[in-house]
Amino acid sequence: MKKLLFIAGLLFFCTVNAFAGPSLTKEHPISFDKDKKTVSFLAEVNGKYLYQETRHFAVYEKGSNGEKAVFRGLVPQVDFYDTLMKINAVPGNNMTLKNKEATRVQGQEFIVTVTWEGADRAYAIDEVINESNNAPILMKFGGNLKNAMDKNTGCLLCLDSCPVGIVSNSAYTYGAIEKRKEVSMKGNKDILPPDGTQVIITLAAK
Amino acid sequence: MISGLILSLLLSHSLWLDMRMNTSLVLPLCLFFGMGAGLCSKKVPHYGIVLLMQGILVFILGYVYGPDMGAWTVMPALIIREGLFLKFMDLCVINRLLVLLILLGNRILFPFNRFLKET
Lengths: 206, 119
Fold this sequence. Notes:
- By secondary structure, chain A is α+β, with helices and mostly antiparallel strands.
- Chain A has one domain (24-205).
- Chain A contains 4 helices and 12 strands, in the order αββββαββαββαββββ.
- Chain A has helices at residues 2-18, 77-86, 125-128, 145-151, and strands spanning 30-33, 38-45, 56-60, 69-73, 109-116, 123-124, 129-131, 139-141, 155-158, 167-169, 185-187, 198-205.
- The longest helix of chain A is centred in the first third of the chain and has 17 residues, at 2-18.
- Chain B has one domain (2-118).
- In chain B, 76% of the residues lie in helices and 0% in strands.
- Chain B has 7 helices and no strands.
- In chain B, α1 runs parallel beside α4 and α5 (69-83) crosses α6 (91-109).
- The radius of gyration of chain B is 16 Å and the shape is globular.
- Chain B starts with a helix and ends with a helix.
- The A-B interface holds A 47-48, 50-56, 65, 67-68, 177-179, 189, 194-196 and B 12-13, 15-16, 18-19, 22, 65, 68, 70-71, 74-75, 78, 82, 90-91.
């Protein structure tokens, strides 16, 4: 009887953990759910951008901009793009290097959340990023696969519209953060865990 | 090391520069030139200059990050880790080494014996 209860408890515990969220590892850093239209990937907090501004939300760690984002992504930009296509997200592909400063990114809009081991809940992107204008961050699937591969910056999600980042914020055109100083963005140090903590970033199609 | 930290902090404060280059690389460059100068010159730097550099570092940390102690404990360690490619090292360890180096450096350079004799 005790053995049965123990096995039942163990099974229950495993089931609960299975529904607690995707379990991602460095070897398998990305997962998707085609029915729920979600993509989740593993990343690490870069503590520098909890105290300094940046225009990058998440960048693949081995890309040239790998150390320039609030989160170091552990998945390459090509894999990230392919996984978004698997959930039938439609890329905008409207941004070019020529029109970038006058164009807002189009494409499938996502709700982006971040969670980590020990977090109370999943936090929305607007909670984990301090946006100086308090405007909502509107993440859209820009696409930009060719530019992403050519430039190899590793950009996954950018905080203003971008012709290279796979997903970017359509609330601002390119240059709003860096060049024209219309807004400043950095990680929210009061919510996010310390530097190096692994997090799971989830994009859910709106 | 201190001058490298000062320069890296100032450079990384420019968003345009910080997004385009690894501003922490100034740190190993300063270390390299400092060591080279130390090997070529027989003179030990005047302690006043060392004290001044440390004061400038504290001033710049205060100016850039204000009273946010989180930034004070994280940013110099991050710059050192990034500049010297010490990705495997925890920030706490780097902070402890930094404090140790500063204390040791001050102990070696400050003319304690002469100061005690004069008093």
